[in-house]
């Protein structure tokens, strides 16, 4: 079975000469949640727009479940649902009308039971007869999601899905995304909320300046690039790190009142135990200690800044 999404050498250069994408390669397997992270202008929306047939590519190939997005456009597009950033809906239609119409666009047979469940899952059932123009921004966002799911796609794109929405909707969406994955739907989301990727994603991709600089399983990325620190608060300040402890790469902070040790989580017990023993031998008294670990946001900032350097 082919991957749900296969992108090879994808490039996009606009008429102005701006290169939005520079030879992007990406493979997405069915049933995963993939988070695409990147600063504004990195190429996230351009990539999604090309896959969804909204923007023409300059070079490269894209297939959805084996269907080329150009040669077999209808089959490829029928497998895709898109929740765009912009709240673009028909203002005078009711919620039920716009969702039903979206389903019909893809030639799907009428299925009121499915649409009812969809609207209930998105807390829209009580609003089904209201016009879009009368809804709040958060409710309009829910309608966009319902429209994207109306034709039962296998691949769902969420482009900044929780931008400007309240915490309740964000949590509802996280729950819905997990439920969709359980039914076999593959979800690709772009987000500025790093905690959203940390909470939801199986794999993380980082794109900047049109280049995909990293694709990694979230757990592996955190283990590989996550910085763990042991911060030791000292009984008495130190002017410098004792020579007998130099091999540990300790750093003095807070005017000599703290020692900071960066360590590998895979060997943390042995390394920390040795360090504490050697500190005692060196006569360094410890008043308190705490540990910290890099978040995905720390890793993202490091990667993007490193690529720019």
Automatic annotation (TrEMBL):
Pfam family, one: ABC_tran
PROSITE patterns per UniProt: ABC_TRANSPORTER_1, ABC_TRANSPORTER_2
Chain ranges of the ABC transporter domain: 5-234
Domain of life of the source: Bacteria
Keyword set includes ATP-binding: yes
Coiled coil: none
GO molecular function: ATP binding; ATP hydrolysis activity
Keyword annotations of the record: ATP-binding, Nucleotide-binding, Transport
Entry similarity comment: Belongs to the ABC transporter superfamily.
Name of this chain's protein: Multidrug ABC transporter ATP-binding protein
Species lineage: Bacteria, Pseudomonadati, Pseudomonadota, Alphaproteobacteria, Hyphomicrobiales
């Amino acid at each position: 079975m082919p991957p749900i999404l296969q992108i090879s050498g994808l490039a996009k250069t606009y008429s102005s000469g701006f290169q939005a994408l520079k030879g992007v390669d990406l493979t997405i397997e069915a049933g995963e949640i993939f988070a695409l992270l990147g600063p504004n202008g990195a190429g996230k929306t351009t990539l999604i727009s090309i896959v969804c047939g909204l923007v023409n590519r300059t070079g490269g190939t894209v297939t959805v479940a084996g269907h080329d997005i150009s040669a077999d456009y209808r089959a490829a597009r029928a497998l895709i649902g898109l929740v765009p950033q912009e709240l673009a809906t028909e203002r005078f239609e009711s919620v039920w009308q716009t969702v039903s119409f979206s389903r019909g666009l893809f030639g799907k047979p009428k299925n009121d039971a499915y649409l009812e469940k969809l609207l209930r899952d998105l807390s829209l059932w009580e609003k089904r007869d209201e016009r879009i123009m009368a809804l709040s921004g958060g409710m309009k966002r829910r309608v966009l999601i319902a429209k994207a799911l109306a034709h039962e796609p296998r691949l769902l794109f969420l482009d900044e899905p929780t931008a400007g929405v309240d915490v309740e909707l964000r949590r509802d969406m996280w729950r819905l995304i997990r439920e969709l994955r359980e039914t076999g739907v593959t979800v690709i989301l772009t987000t500025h909320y790093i905690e959203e990727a940390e909470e939801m994603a199986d794999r993380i991709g980082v794109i900047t300046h049109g280049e995909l600089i990293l694709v990694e399983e979230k757990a592996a990325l955190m283990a590989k690039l996550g910085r763990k620190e042991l911060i030791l608060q000292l009984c008495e300040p130190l002017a410098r790190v004792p020579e007998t402890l130099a091999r540990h790469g300790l750093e003095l902070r807070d005017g000599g009142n703290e020692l900071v040790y960066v360590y590998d989580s895979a060997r943390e017990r042995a390394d920390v135990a040795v360090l504490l023993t050697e500190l005692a031998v060196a006569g360094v008294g410890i008043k308190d200690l705490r540990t910290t670990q890099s978040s995905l946001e720390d890793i993202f900032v490091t990667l993007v800044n490193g690529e720019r350097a």
